[in-house]
């Protein structure tokens, strides 16, 4: 039984968290009306980019198979759980049904099926027990299991030509769908494949100092590491901050979902590295901790993902350790809220300054909907109102 961090907040922190709840409700109620049944992604000048029409093709993405499309229904399920407002439930169910097109088309799906169906279909099943939602979640889990290389023991990422050996640190979140499927069915294939993948990344993507590779390129036959491409960070050997966030949250969730202490220890090691870096920048994250000093690029996405990870760690460690992780989670969220949140209900996009890729100016320091998801999840956990989607 893990500890609920909401009970450990100071009175002032609890008041701050509670002050955000009506603001979250006002923001997302207004956005539901504006997005009008579509799935949003990036807000430009306070207006979300959404699907253009019923075919599911997006302005700037890969249509209905775009990897972030599960986070909007995820926000809706979190807000429904916290408020009981049926509008959130209806919106989440509609978005989940839209994602059936991705199953039908298949092309474009890859390791991110966990991101797509865990916060949509699996969340629905956990809250309502709906069998159709369970089937969608299991479909996603089977697709993810099909990407597992049983010789080299990793889940292949993406579908790029020549990338058969690639596995990225982001997959530490997607692998939680395998653990859910294993618990739900009792089928050890899911659980054991998930653990082997976690062990492979723990031993090869996480460096001794707690920093992480984004991409690890394995020989698909021997499992030997061939290269560590820079991916969305500055370069090979650098330290993409959101990758650190995926590792912190992913290994913390893996520890929760498997009971394996080695995953919690890994999450803590990466967390200590991340905290040491943002301590130098007022609890705000650079896009890459090993990039040149100029220009300065920020990533609020890394911050809110890490906040979720630190909260999860805090819930799993003994009392005398807890304050480090919880205090830093609150500090990070307060910094994001004070400087990088747009609370105006008439404008789309809550968390600003989110960055997709260091070298891509099109999605650098912009509001991204999945940044909003992790901010909501973290705040609701602190309020004791979040559901455990993962």
UniProtKB/TrEMBL annotation:
InterPro entries noted in UniProt: 6-hairpin_glycosidase_sf (IPR008928), 6hp_glycosidase-like_sf (IPR012341), UG_Glycosaminoglycan_Hydrolase (IPR052369)
Q: Which domain of life is it from?
A: Bacteria
* GO BP term, pick one: polysaccharide catabolic process
Sorted keywords for this record are:
Hydrolase
What the entry lists under SUPFAM superfamilies is as follows:
Six-hairpin glycosidases
The molecular function terms of the Gene Ontology recorded here are:
chondroitin hydrolase activity
Family classification: Belongs to the glycosyl hydrolase 88 family.
This protein is called Glycosyl hydrolase family 88
Name the species this protein comes from.
Bifidobacterium oedipodis
